[in-house]
Amino acid sequence: MEAMRDYVTHRLLIVGSIADLKALDRVADWKELADAKDIALVDRSPGRRLWQFVTPAPAMQPLRVMSRQWPRLTFFLHYDCEDARIVALVRAKNGRPSHHRFTY
Fold first, then answer.
1. Is residue 30 a contact partner of residue 82, using CB atoms and an 8 Å limit?
2. Given CA atoms 67, 30, 53, 58 in this order, what sign does their dihedral have?
3. Contact at 8 Å (CB) between 1 and 60?
4. What do you get for the CA distance between the two ends of the chain, in Å?
5. CATH topology (fold) of 8-103
6. What is the pLDDT of residues 1-26, one digit of tens each?
7. Tens digit of pLDDT for each residue in 61-86?
8. Predicted TM-score of the model (pTM)
């Protein structure tokens, strides 16, 4: 997908075992989201992490990479491209995303 004129807002929910999430917390390098701005950890509950950030385009490639590196975790990415009026929900497990896009 090509870059949008405006920023794309994302909410990334990561679900898995407490041990796997703790391991992710220790080594997660959010530099993979090179163009990400306003990165914030919204929820850090047992069994889940919820991150929020904005990028110039949907963060599909970093999602594939992370889900491949962490095959026992499940990643849910919700993004909203306001200028293009596109909203999407992506579920990724073991590098394989299932992408559902909607226009509004």
1. no
2. negative
3. yes
4. 17
5. Alpha-Beta Plaits (3.30.70)
6. 555 457 899 999 999 999 999 999 98
7. 999 999 999 999 999 999 999 989 99
8. 0.88
